[in-house]
Amino acid sequence: MGKPKELRILYENLDVPDMHTIEVYRQHGGYGSLDRLFTQEPSDLVDIIKDSGLRGRGGAGFSTGMKWSFVPKDIEPKYLCANADESEPGTFSNRYVLERKPHSLIEGIICACWTLGIHTAYVYIRGEFTLGKVRLDAAIKEAYANGLLGESVAGKDFALDIYTHAGAGAYICGEETGLIESLEGKRGQPRNKPPFPAVQGLFMKPTVVQNVETLCNVPFIVSKGAEWYKTLGTVYSDTPRGTDPVNTGTKLYCISGHVEKPGVYEIEMGLTANELIELAGGVRGGNRVKAVIPGGSSAPVLTPYECDVPLDFTSLQMAKTMLGSGGIIVMDETVCTVHALTNLLDFYAHESCGQCTPCRNGTPWTRDISKRIEQGGGQPGDVDRLIEVANNIANVDTFTWNTICVFGIAVSWPAVSFARKFRPEFEAHIREGKCVTLPVDEAVTPPEENYAWPQVLAEVAQKPSWD
Amino acid sequence: MAKITMDGVEYEVSDGLSVVQASAEVGITVPHYCYHPSLTSPANCRMCLIELTPPGAPGPIRQLATGCSTRVADGMVINHNTPTVQAARASSLESLLAHHPLDCPTCDQAGECELQNFAQKFGHDVGNYAETKKTPPRKHLGPHVDLFTTRCVVCTRCTRFTEEVSGDAVLQLVNRGGKNEIDVYPGIPIDNKLSGNVVDICPVGALSSTDFMYRSRPWFLEEVDSVCTRCSKGCNITVEHREGETVRIKPRFNEDVNEFWMCDDGRYECGYVNSPDRLRMPFAREGDDLVACGWSDVFDAIAAAVQAAGGENVAVIASAWSTNEELHAVRRFATEAVRTSLIGLLSAAGDDEDTVYPGFTIEKDKNPNGAGARLILGDEVAQDSAIWDVLRRAKAAIVFSGIPDAELSDDAVEALEALDFLAVVDVGTSALTALADIVIPGTAYTEKDGCFTNSQQRVQKLNAAHPPLGTAMREWEFVRYAAEALGAEFDYTDEASVTADLVASTPAFAGVTLEAVGKRGYVLGSGEAEPEADNGNYAYAKMFWK
To answer: How far apart are CA B368 and CA B333, in angstroms?
Structure first.
């Protein structure tokens, strides 16, 4: 097996000048999937997407085809919301799509809406993506002018309108029901589920919320077929019950932090964290890795002992963490993990919507404990307190949460994983009464002690060969 | 009825209830702050967490469910007592108490506070919170409402009330996350006629009534069930009193009348009950002055006046603020003792239209018993300005009022001044007593037993919180002695005897007994009394609504 290498599908021709215009996009084969699209029955297309194994790229990794099959056919209107509220720290792949290849998102939306019989789509764009919104708005205008949107899409008897909506800077509006509330003009607070958006979503109508990256995958599956898509990525043949073994397609890995060449790398799923770091030029200055966050800041952190875990949905789930949004943050030996955690928890304390009790009060509480330890005010027992308080928001061991939405687990995952896996460093802070950065070997809890070591999946049915 | 299993015991509960209500129905307390049965459930306080097995499922669902947003269904299995549930409830409570100032010694809510109640029953003994507490300042949100921001648990009951019931959405959440606070828009206070309800629904001491503030510990208050007098809706209320003073009026749940609400007119404008201007003894006019006199002087004066004018020339004006019993006694007094046909009905001026909120209506008729009066005195009885014409035909008059702040038109004053003799029964000094020859102290609604008939023809019972002031006597008692002075014998010994007499002689009131009226009232002509309800929201109200 050779070294992993980039395979650009979603990001193909991303760097071509003026790719954001319809002319250039079409010159490079853009909107090519529409010919195939309109010759197929929507119900067949749902099966094709299901067959392709495409999983939602927003974080949860739920099967897209499965989600689409839940959408009731007889209720009108239905809505599609493209989730471009990309605000998970460490994640920045959607931004490039919006800024440089916005037509690929429109193409994906057209494919999804035809498949689901939807005539109105909303793109909820993170407020800070000013250029992205300008480019997407311009692209939508071009698409209308070229007959790709409006009363009759590409001359077919199918109407579709796309509206864009800029968020006002709240992380929680990236949660699908928070997004829907915000889109309805209310405070961005997630809803209780059930009912799920597929049944009662935007304006209480059936709604599909999909990440930009997921939607961008759809045109390729439509034009090239599920069989082709299944040749990409990794499918495991032996996984525990309840674990989805399918990890087909490429993933936009956003790698940032202490690597030589940070950025977005589109690679078939299945390479390991170490391989990705190598691909990104290795750790800066030849330093050692201390911690790696594998899927956006909500994902439980990995220690150097765990960096040979493949970065796909299944393996990371087995390693008790997640691929999430694919935002990989690499921290080298100079990093104080207590400071890193405080910084993360400060973000979550700031971004909690405050709707439900455990999160509203628990999140600042974890931040305060972590901050106190970092600043030298830690007391014996504080690490256990931190873990307990975080587990009371959402229990990472039983994977249950007392909160309305999964923000709760997004807080307690980093809090508990940092405290457990870097406990010696936390204890050193408390012992010394000041901030101390330990060498990697001393800072990390030995893996056999109290955190899960990634189980190597026994049989691999298919894995990229990278050749 | 739905068959459910809770904590291993099978119960039959009413259909369509939330788990919180259903549990209350069978006597199990499910702690909650954000849930209120008359508002939507956001399930945000996370206190009512339960282990739920949906009907037909092999085992409980992995995540805990919220009892407020889960509706009971046949075959559902619910556990309130598993270690997970107990730990989850305790940790939510610990979170809520993290920033709580624990200022119970100076908090009005202490004693009727759900934080205290649930912390005792469901909380940890010791709090683990060792960080700095938030101390946002107290806010004045409106003329009747203050917010002790530190005590707030952000359950959003109040914001939902202003959105769903009063409809003006003046209360909102501002800021985000741990900095969430209830507030009003700048320059727009909470100043609608339902504002007092947000204090009631606040489960903690955050929203406080500026009228009740620091006046009494709730455990010193004695309570009686009563009916509001401020309009013909007849909201069910609880009068809370202490040492002869009415301290607080709160709505009492009645599904068919006012649900959990009442308006500020009824809640706060009961001040006249405690007013120093109340009459405590009879007065007789000597020149320009009213001088205190004895009861025998009153009866002698009335007897003399009736004799002088001749019974048929004496007008008797009843009041739409009197109870059914009083009205009946007054009618008998007029027809059997005075022997006159000059009868009128004094009413408070009403509004042109009902005041309608999305979830509550304040009625335009500002008399608590106009409906009862028309049934007892007859529809054709002279009302409104027509009563002054009745007075013009009379030489003497006995006027029952009891209407606080009643105003008299020039027309009325002219008619009253023309009389040879005027006796007025009123609760306090008023425009009427200023013209009277004899002033008789009446009782306010907190001082009498009896029934009102509201605009739905529902007979509802009020109970006396206090004895009549000073030497005052209740109106039926006064009528009995006055009739005696005129040579008529009324066999009244207590309120119930008047009720019995009313029912026996007035067909419209057939079937009315105090038992039938009960707590929910009795709709005239409905044939059957509604049984004392202990299901659904009545069970909820009994457990959680003070």
So the answer is: 22
Classify B457 as helix, strand or coil.
coil
Q: Which of residues 164-193 of A touch B (CB under 8 A)?
A: 170, 187, 192
B44 vs A356, A379, A399: nearest CB: A356
Nearest chain A Cα distance for residue B202, angstroms: 16
Closest chain B C-alpha to A252 CA, distance in angstroms: 31
Question: From the list A360, A362, A388, which residue is nearest B180 (CB)?
Answer: A360
Q: Give pLDDT, residue A227.
A: 95
Q: pLDDT, tens digit, for every residue of A172-219?
A: 999 999 999 999 999 999 999 889 999 999 999 999 999 999 999 999
Q: What are the domain boundaries of chain A?
A: 22-230, 247-332, 337-450
How would you classify the pairing of strands B314-319 and A120-125? unpaired
Q: Is A362 on the interface with B (CB under 8 A)?
A: yes
Question: Are the beta carbons of A356 and B49 separated by less than 8 Å?
Answer: no
Domain locations in chain B as residue ranges: 2-93, 99-214, 283-538
Separation CA B515–CA B270 (nearest Å): 28
Asked if the Cβ–Cβ distance from A365 to B47 is below 8 Å, we say no
Q: Which residues of B fall within a CB distance of 8 Å from A358? A: 46, 91-92, 95
Quote the pLDDT of residue A328. Answer: 97
At the second CATH level, the architecture of A247-332 is: Roll (3.10)
CA atoms within 13 A on the CB side of A346: 10
Q: Which of A118, A73, A91, A99 lies closest to A14 in space, CA to CA? A: A99
SS3 A461: strand
Q: Does B73 touch chain A (CB under 8 A)?
A: no
| C-alpha span between B416 and B387 (Å, rounded) | 11
Domains A247-332 and A337-450 share a fold: no
Which helix H or strand E contains B322, and what residues bound it? none
CA distance B316 to B397: 6
In degrees, rounded to 5, the angle at the alpha carbon of residue A156 between the alpha carbons of residues A153 and A157 is 100
User: Which CATH code fits A22-230?
Assistant: 3.40.50.11540
Burial class (CB in 10 A: 0-12, 13-18, 19+), B181: middle
**Under an 8 A CB cutoff, do B131 and A358 touch?**
no
Q: Of B42, B62, B98, which has the smallest distance from its Cβ to A361's Cβ?
A: B98
Q: Span B283-538: which CATH code?
A: 3.40.50.740
Q: Which has more pLDDT, A104 or A462?
A: A104
Q: Tell me if residue A68 falls in helix, strand or coil.
A: helix
ipTM of this complex prediction, to 2 decimal places: 0.91
Q: Dihedral through CA B200, CA B202, CA B205, CA B208, nearest 10?
A: -50
Choices 3.20.20.80, 3.60.15.10, 3.30.1490.100, 3.30.70.20: CATH for B99-214: 3.30.70.20
Structure tokens at A464: 């990229």
- Contact between chains at B69 and A192 (C-beta distance less than 8 A): yes
Q: Does domain A337-450 have CATH number 3.40.50.1010?
A: no
More confident residue, B529 or A169: A169
State the architecture of B2-93 in CATH terms: Roll (3.10)
Give B45→chain A minimum CA distance, Å: 5
Query: Is the CB of residue A146 less than 8 Å away from at least one CB of chain B?
Result: no
